[in-house]
Amino acid sequence: MTDGNRLPRLKLMVTIIDRDKGALAVSLFRAHHLHFDYLCMGLGTASSRILDYFGLSETEKDVVFTLVPEPCVGKILRLTAEKFQIHRPGQGILFTVPLSAVSAQVPQVLCKKEYLAEDGAEEAENMEHTKQYTLVLAVVNHGSVDAVMDAARSEGARGGTVLYARRVGMEDMENVLGFTFQPEKEVVAILAPKTQKKALMEAINRSAGLTTEARGILFALPVDDLIGLQPPIDNGAGQE
Fold first, then answer.
1. What tens digit of pLDDT does each residue of 151-190 get?
2. Which residue, 220, 225, 217, is CA-closest to 194?
3. What 3-state DSSP class applies to 53?
4. For the segment 55-106, what is each residue's pLDDT rounded down to a tens digit?
5. How far, in Å, CA of 45 to CA of 48, rounded?
6. How is domain 133-227 classified at the architecture level of CATH?
7. 142-176 in b/e burial notation, b at 16+ Cβ within 10 A?
8. How far is 165 from 159, CA to CA, in rounded Å?
């Protein structure tokens, strides 16, 4: 589990579930000594056809960011998936992102020997396409989500999650680029197969990149573990 006195690595686990369930997820994580949770309000962008298929009436989401010791990831993923029925269509998505560094005090809190011994190491079951997905993030001006998602769907993306943000301290960048930045931002997060990443980002950049009215900035993060992303729906309707 550990290499001598070296503490285990941490991963960032992202839980996307229906609005008002985020607090329940945080309670579950706290019961397993995970004390660093950040709850954001999000908005799903699935098409109406997919929403109808899943029987969903709205797309408001809670997005919970949680720091998890690597040896405990399998158990925490399993418990979360079971509690919120993540393996059922439309119930949510769980995934982890590797971290290269974190504040020194954080592993000391999360990786106490008694915590690791209690939770133990466990492989996550029914992991979907492990390490074959990437998380594409597009930070765009407020009101630009449709431009991002139209471009993303043209390359096979089925949906994403929107977080709302505000940009600060961009005066120097505005002077360099020669145009102003709208402070209100939308962060569109899209899980996509690695094989689609380049084409997906190029399509979004053409429609909502830095030189467009959306003033979008794109980047991608690796995904280690993934539960809840269902296979594409094929009902003969073809491309939307």
1. 999 999 888 899 988 766 555 555 555 545 556 889 999 9
2. 220
3. helix
4. 444 478 999 999 999 999 999 999 999 999 998 877 899 999 999 899 988 9
5. 9
6. 2-Layer Sandwich (3.30)
7. eebbebbbebbbbbebbbbbbbeeeeeeeeeeeee
8. 19
Residue whose structure tokens are 């945080």:
26
Q: Name the CATH topology of 10-119.
A: Alpha-Beta Plaits (3.30.70)
Tokens 């096979």 sit at which residue? 156
The order of strands in the sheet holding 184-193 is 217-222, 133-141, 184-193, 161-166, 37-44, 60-69, 10-18, 93-98, 226-227
Domains of the chain by residue range: 10-119, 133-227
Specify the pTM. 0.79
Q: What is the pLDDT of residues 103-143, one digit of tens each?
A: 988 988 888 887 787 766 665 554 554 678 999 999 999 89
